[in-house]
Every structure is written in structure tokens, then in C-alpha cells.
């Protein structure tokens, strides 16, 4: 703070002599403004924005308490410090003054030196706070700008790499491009972490409330991390304990972010074994349920002296460890802040060489299911025998099958498995399904006949192997008269129900679930908006569209053009919002893909003007960057037509930017860089919602 800074002080008192005394004492150091009633005081506070208010309590019409209350209730003036100077010397009066927002309370008669000292201290505190807020804002703005500038070329790098991976390549070329894609995604994750830390420090993280399913959220996190886990030959498991309410209201994306951070870290620091996400509820608290999440791994563990540093910002564990396993440590800091923001807490229990357990608890409102709950067609429970030597995996699968109305027996060694099969055959009470975990037991389709002799054929109707989709399984080897099924891990409740209800028939399961997924082998469908192998493959067929593509960056135009042309769509380009409006005045388009940051006219302004033309609201427009005659041409051309869907395509990742886009009349916001599958899914959804019908082409 500069020593020569001269603050502005508003003195509010209905007694002239008090104003005179305070004015004479303070005017050499400060600019003084005066009000003799509450109404005048509020006017001067709003128009002059003083640095501090000295406020009497006993005044006609409106007392000082009410004046202070109104100052503090106005977001534009709430930061102005208020000091009461009054003859009301009772403790109750002082408590009331502080309760309405005053920072100090001085009683008359007062000592001028004390008054001046307190004013000086409070002003210095205010100016220091203002400087910190300004510095934080400058940092946030800088990081947001840098994020935008980095995301823009990254959109081209990731997008073009995805397209290249969809062409004919030899193994070496595919490996090079895969490294580029994975490295770009790692860089993007780092940018997101840095941006989140900045928002947290500035207090700009806002929680959303939406109804979502806990089980599906955890399963989606597992799906996202499966490839990384299976590359290291790790089991990755999710276990929602029985009777856990799964429909809740809260911030799904932030909860998902915490889970991805913690489980992703667990994979990074685990060489062999497994990573488990477990969820269950604790005691209810009114309308809220306390959810306890546990992320357990069999990794290297954490020394006790380093646990305290674990969640601190810009702090890592032992340098040798972090250099070996890589990472910034930002994910744990973000997780701690998000957990606290959600009203919960986070902690870790660990021992070197024995793995780690990360715990966090959050309160979530009870939700109502968004889907119809249908009773199972089969009233009689299927009998299932599970052979799994990994305890967490067996427990998880047992509970999943119980949810699918199955009667389950779990065995963990070959001897018990043989015994269970023998008893089933002897009692003529065969198992409907015999599920064998390939990784934990080591049994394959080729060796099953050798391990169990003829027991399987006489004691189980359907035999199925659970396996990691990235590991080769000898599916085609001879296994006697047994024709085993193969189920890729990790399993979801929906998949296990489908498998049981269709007796493991792949074609029937696909038809029943109505999703474009492979039941055997690698899943080839999007999870949480991500495409596993960068394949430009859509679940939705669309007729040929006329698309207006608005962007000022050459490589973004090229990438979007390629994506659209590969699907047979017609593309018309515009370089800024003004050019887009020119095009919209003479041509019909099915959809507009609009960048936000552009010269001449940005995307938000262009969309706002388009909506004004469509709604016939031009009388309210005061925009100098475009002629009124052009807007009138658009209004005339669009009259009687449905509003054109506008999809924002922006490198700005802030929630405020998304709100600004939607408030301007855009239908959806896609953040760059994006995956081709995400792009086309959004396009299909927006156009379907706009037309009111599905957009499947006639050939589909």
C-alpha cells in the first residue's frame, strides 16, 4: 500500500457539532463527505463509494442500524467498512451494531487520537484486502487467458491426431501418434488442474445441484481409468455396498473429479495388485445422507512424516518418489478444497509397503430416481458360482449379482470350487452360471477342462470368464464340450444384469441394452463423453446438414471442416461474428458452430443479435459493429422460421463463460479441445431437441 494514498470518508450524523469536530480532525488526511440523514447517506455511498463510513445510530426517519444493514446487503457496497460512533454505550447496542455488519463501535464522548488510529488501521486492512483481491483477479484472468491460448492449438493437435489414428497406419506410426495424443491429454489435465487451483484460491468455485446416480458416476470413473490400470496389469474395482441409496442431488462433476484424482493417483503409485473405489452411506442428517468413499490401493504406501504435507498446495512427497512416478501433486490439493467446499472432509491412512487408503465423506441430498424402476421378469433367483481368489473383486461381484436377483456362492480356491461343483451335480441342483475370474485364478478356456475334469458340464449351465479387455485370452482354444462366454472387466451393474437376463448371449444383450458396445473384448462406446481409441464413430446417423462454421483460427476451421465433411455435411465458413450475420441474412443453415473469441465481433454478441432478429426485438439493439439494415435483413429472412441451433465451441473453460453463452441464446457449449465422438453426440442431441424428433437418416 502506498503511504500517500488519501482515502475518502463519509461522516453520517444529524448533529452539526459532531460533523464539525470529526471533519476538522480528519480533513488534513482524508477526503471528507457528509450526510445528515440515512437517505442521503445511502445515496452518497452508492454514488461516491467511500473507503469508510463513520455512522451515528440515533437519527430521524432511518437509524444507523438500518443504514448499515442496507449498505451490507448491497453487493456493490458490502465491502465498505462501517464504524459506528454513538452515544449508545450499552453492550447490547454494540452487539447489535456488529451483528448488522459494522467492523468497529466507538462510543461518545470519543478520543480523537483513538478514532484516527482505528480509521487508519481499518483503511489499511481494506486497502490490503483490495490489493490482494485485485492481484488474485489479475492472476485468474492471466491463467484464463493462457488456458485459452494453449487450448486453441491443442484442439488442433488432439483433433488432427484423432483423425490420423482413424486412417491406415503401420504399427510404428500408430505408436507415435498414440504417444502424441496421450501426451496432449496429459498436458490438458495439467492445465485444468492449474486453472482449478486458481479458481479455488480466488473463491470462484461454484457447486451445482443436479440429480445423479452414485453407482453410474463411480462406474464411469472406473471406465475412464481402466486403460491406464490394465496397462499396468492392475485390477480396478468399484464396490457400492448393498442398500446404499444411489440417487442423490449434488455436484456430480466435482465428485467425479475428486474420485478421478484419487483413483488416478492410486494407479500411478501401484505397481501390482488392485485399486478399489468403495462407497457406502453413514448416518443420515435431515435431508442429507453422508456418503463415505474409500479409494484403496496395494501400492508403495506413504511414510507417516509425509502424510501431513500430502494435501498442501504446491507441495509434493519425496522428490525421488515423485520423479519416479511423475505428477504435480495438484490433484490432491484440489480434492481437499472440493471436499471442504462440499461440506465434507478428506484423510489418508497409509503405511510404506502396505498400500494406502484415501477416505473422504460428503453430504448429499436424497434424490429421486430419474428412470422407471421395473421389476425383474424372473421371480426365481439364478444360482451363480463365482471363483475369484482376489477378495475385494469377489465381494464386489457377489454384491452386483445379488443386486441382479441372484443367489450367489463365492469360492476362493480350486478345492472349494471343485467341492461346490460336485455338490451341485450330486444334488441335481446345477448352477445357472459359473463365473471364473481369469486374472486372479489363472484358469483359461483351454485349461478349464483339465482343472475341473467333467464337473463343469454336469453342474453349470453357462460358464463365463471375466477378463481384462487388454489381456489376451485363448477364447478360440478347444475346451471340450464347454462353450464359455467372455465378460470384459470392469463390470457394471447394467452389464451384469444384461448378461444374466440373456444367459450370456452377446447378440441378445446388445439388442436388450440398445447400446453399440462389444460384450466381448474392448468396449467401443463413449463413457462420460470420452472416446476410448479416438475412433470417429457415431452411434447416431444424421442426414446431410448445412453447417455455418464460425472461427478465426485456420487450424480450427480445417479440423472442424474435416470432421463434418467426413460425415457428408456441407460447410460454410465465416471468420467472425459479423461475417456470420452476413451469411445468416441470405442463407438457411441447420446449425451454427460458433467460436467465442474473435476479432470484429465475438460469438456471444453475434448470437445475441441473431436471437434478437429471430424474436423481432431490434428496437432494443445498440450495436455499432453491425448495421441496422443487416439486422433488419436477417429479421425479414428468418421471419416465420424456427430459431437456428447455435453451439458454442470455445477454448474458455470457465463456468462464467458457459453461462454467458447460454444467456446469449446458445443451445450448448463445447469446450476445446474436444473428442470427435463428443462433438457429434452434442450435435445430434442439440438438433434432435431443436426439431423435437430423432435425426436418424432415412437409410438408417
TrEMBL record:
Keywords: ATP-binding, Kinase, Nucleotide-binding, Phosphoprotein, Transferase, Two-component regulatory system. One of its GO terms (molecular function) is ATP binding. Its EC number is 2.7.13.3. Residues 145-366 form the Histidine kinase domain. CDD domains: HATPase_EvgS-ArcB-TorS-like, HisKA, REC_hyHK_CKI1_RcsC-like, REC_PA4781-like. It comes from the Bacteria. The modification 4-aspartylphosphate is found at residues 56, 595. Residues 8-123, 546-687 form the Response regulatory domain. It catalyses: ATP + protein L-histidine = ADP + protein N-phospho-L-histidine. Gene3D superfamilies: 1.10.287.130, 3.40.50.2300, Histidine kinase-like ATPase, C-terminal domain (3.30.565.10). At low DSF concentrations, interacts with RpfF. This is Sensory/regulatory protein RpfC.
Amino acid at each position: 500500500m502506498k503511504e500517500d494514498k488519501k482515502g475518502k470518508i463519509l461522516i453520517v450524523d444529524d448533529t452539526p457539532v459532531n460533523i464539525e469536530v470529526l471533519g476538522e480532525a480528519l480533513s488534513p488526511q482524508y477526503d471528507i463527505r457528509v450526510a445528515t440523514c440515512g437517505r442521503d447517506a445511502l445515496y452518497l455511498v452508492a454514488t461516491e463509494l467511500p473507503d469508510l463510513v463513520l455512522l451515528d445510530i440515533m437519527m430521524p426517519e432511518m437509524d444507523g442500524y438500518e443504514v448499515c444493514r442496507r449498505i451490507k446487503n448491497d453487493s456493490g457496497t458490502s465491502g465498505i467498512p462501517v464504524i459506528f460512533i454513538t452515544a449508545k454505550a450499552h453492550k447490547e447496542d454494540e452487539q447489535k451494531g456488529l451483528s448488522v455488519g459494522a467492523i468497529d463501535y466507538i462510543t461518545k464522548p470519543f478520543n480523537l487520537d483513538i478514532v484516527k488510529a482505528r480509521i487508519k488501521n481499518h483503511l489499511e486492512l481494506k486497502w490490503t484486502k483490495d490489493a490482494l483481491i485485485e492481484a488474485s483477479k489479475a492472476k485468474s484472468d492471466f491463467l484464463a487467458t493462457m488456458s485459452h491460448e494453449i487450448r486453441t492449438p491443442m484442439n488442433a493437435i488432439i483433433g488432427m491426431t484423432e483423425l490420423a489414428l482413424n486412417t491406415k497406419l503401420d504399427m510404428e506410426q500408430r505408436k507415435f501418434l498414440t504417444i502424441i495424443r496421450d501426451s496432449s491429454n496429459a498436458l490438458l489435465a495439467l492445465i485444468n488442474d492449474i486453472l482449478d487451483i486458481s479458481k479455488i484460491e480466488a473463491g470462484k468455485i461454484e457447486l451445482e445441484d443436479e440429480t445423479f446416480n452414485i453407482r453410474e458416476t463411480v462406474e464411469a470413473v472406473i471406465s475412464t481409468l481402466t486403460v491406464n490400470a490394465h496397462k499396468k496389469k492392475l485390477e480396478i474395482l468399484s464396490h457400492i455396498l448393498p442398500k446404499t441409496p444411489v440417487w442423490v442431488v449434488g455436484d456430480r462433476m466435482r465428485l467425479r473429479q475428486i474420485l478421478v484424482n484419487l483413483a488416478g493417483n492410486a494407479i500411478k503409485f501401484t505397481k501390482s495388485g488392485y485399486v478399489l473405489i468403495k462407497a457406502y452411506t453413514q448416518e443420515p442428517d435431515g435431508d442429507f445422507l453422508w456418503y463415505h468413499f474409500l479409494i484403496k490401493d496395494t501400492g508403495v504406501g506413504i511414510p507417516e512424516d509425509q502424510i501431513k504435507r500430502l494435501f498442501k498446495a504446491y507441495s509434493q512427497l519425496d522428490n525421488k518418489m515423485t520423479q519416479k512416478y511423475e505428477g504435480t501433486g495438484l490433484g490432491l490439493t484440489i480434492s481437499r478444497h472440493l471436499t471442504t467446499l462440499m461440506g465434507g472432509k478428506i484423510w489418508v491412512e497409509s503405511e510404506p509397503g502396505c498400500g494406502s487408503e484415501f477416505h473422504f465423506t460428503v453430504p448429499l441430498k436424497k434424490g429421486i430416481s430419474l428412470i422407471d424402476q421395473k421389476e425383474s421378469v424372473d421371480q426365481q433367483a439364478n444360482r451363480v458360482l463365482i471363483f475369484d481368489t482376489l477378495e475385494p473383486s469377489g465381494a464386489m461381484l457377489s454384491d452386483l449379482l445379488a443386486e441382479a436377483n441372484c443367489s450367489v456362492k463365492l469360492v476362493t480356491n480350486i478345492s472349494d470350487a471343485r467341492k461346490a461343483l460336485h455338490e451341485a451335480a450330486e444334488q441335481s441342483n446345477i448352477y445357472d452360471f459359473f463365473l471364473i475370474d481369469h486374472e486372479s485364478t489363472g484358469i483359461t478356456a483351454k485349461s478349464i477342462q483339465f482343472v475341473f475334469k467333467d464337473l463343469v458340464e454336469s453342474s453349470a449351465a453357462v460358464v463365463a470368464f471375466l477378463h481384462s479387455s487388454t489381456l489376451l485370452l485363448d477364447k478360440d482354444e478347444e475346451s471340450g464340450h464347454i462353450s464359455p462366454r467372455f465378460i470384459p472387466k470392469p463390470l457394471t451393474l447394467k452389464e451384469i444384469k444384461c448378461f444374466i437376463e440373456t444367459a450370456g448371449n452377446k447378440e441378445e444383450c446388445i439388442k436388450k441394452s440398445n447400446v453399440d458396445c462389444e460384450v466381448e473384448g474392448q468396449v467401443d462406446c463413449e463413457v462420460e463423453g470420452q472416446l476410448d481409441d479416438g475412433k470417429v464413430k457415431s452411434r447416431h446417423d444424421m442426414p446431410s446438414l448445412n453447417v455455418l462454421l464460425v472461427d478465426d483460427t485456420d487450424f480450427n476451421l480445417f479440423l472442424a471442416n474435416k470432421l463434418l465433411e467426413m460425415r457428408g455435411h456441407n460447410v460454410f465458413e465465416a471468420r467472425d461474428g459479423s461475417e456470420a450475420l452476413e451469411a445468416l441474412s441470405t442463407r438457411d443453415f441447420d446449425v451454427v458452430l460458433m467460436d467465442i473469441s474473435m476479432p470484429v465481433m465475438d460469438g456471444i454478441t453475434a448470437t445475441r443479435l441473431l436471437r434478437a432478429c429471430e424474436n423481432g426485438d431490434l428496437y432494443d439493439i445498440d450495436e455499432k459493429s453491425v448495421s441496422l439494415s443487416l439486422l433488419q435483413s436477417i429479421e425479414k429472412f428468418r421471419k416465420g422460421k424456427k430459431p437456428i441451433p447455435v453451439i458454442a465451441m470455445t477454448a474458455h473453460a470457465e463456468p462464467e463463460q458457459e453461462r454467458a453463452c447460454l444467456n446469449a441464446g446458445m443451445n450448448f457449449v463445447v469446450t476445446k479441445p474436444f473428442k470427435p465422438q463428443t462433438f457429434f453426440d452434442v450435435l445430434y442431441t442439440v438438433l434432435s431437441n431443436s426439431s423435437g424428433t430423432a435425426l436418424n437418416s432415412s437409410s438408417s
